[in-house]
């Protein structure tokens, strides 16, 4: 594939990756909107269920209290009737005793028995009221348990709020400029090799490194270097490395062509199938490490 074809293919790949990534973001957004909509619907249903459960419980409490109040009212009425009967019986006993000429202990015993009957009826009525109170309390407790169970069941539907998924990582884009430059380098290298009949020689760059910025474009291809160590970044964002050329012992400090071509392709050239950097076009100096 030619240099231009390779760069075009890289651009096409980048376009496809951007389309796929955009689609992934749209799918994520749609999924999140559906989750939020579903949760909001469940939340509204939960609030309605809570209101209905509270209303039902309040009605049950009211019915129980009405039943207890009715029992108390009936007990009061019955107690009044029994008290009247006791007074009437007491009078009848005294009249009957007077007519028959009976006095003393016999009359007193009848009066005591009359009051005792009234006391028994009062005791039975009090017991009935106590049992009614216990029943009302138990009924309210059952209603309260049912209310809590209903509320807990309804709350389980909205207890966990949905959380948006993490966005997918952006795609790793290809560098058409770098692909183009490497393609051109390979093409030139093949051309030079063909011109030399396959016996061309490769120049060593061990002794061609500049001592200052005045030397212009210099060999900065990573394939010519070894013992590479990143030591900093320039104000314009170019990575700075220390290295030595293969076959040489002198340590240098400078840029790497493969990095520079991504930020400033105009500062990168090709010489003998290797990338070079014109240091006059970047804010990094090529210098010997002392």
For the termini, the CA-CA separation is: 44 Å
Number of strands: 7
Find the structural class using helix and strand composition.
Answer: alpha+beta
Cα-atom radius of gyration = 51 Å
Q: How do the strands line up in the largest sheet? A: 2-3-4-7
Shape from CA axes? rod-shaped
Largest sheet: 4 strands, antiparallel
Into which percentage range does the β-strand content fall? 5-15%
Taken together, the total number of domains comes to: 2
- Helix content range: 55-70%
The helix-strand sequence is HHHEEEEHEEE
* Number of helices, where a helix is a run of at least 4 consecutive DSSP H or I residues: 4
Q: Residue ranges: pLDDT <50 for 5 or more in a row? A: 192-216
What average pLDDT do the residues reach?
Answer: 82
Please state the oligomeric state of the protein chains shown. Answer: single chain
What descriptive keywords fit this protein?
alpha+beta, 61% helix, 2 domains, 290 residues, three-stranded antiparallel β-sheet, rod-shaped, four-stranded antiparallel β-sheet
Describe the structure.
The chain has 290 residues and is of the alpha+beta class. The protein has two domains: 3-155; 176-288, no CATH class. The protein contains four helices and seven strands. Strand 2 (225-233) and strand 3 (239-245) form a beta hairpin. Helix 1 runs antiparallel to helix 2 and helix 1 packs antiparallel against helix 3. Residues 192-216 have low confidence and may be disordered.
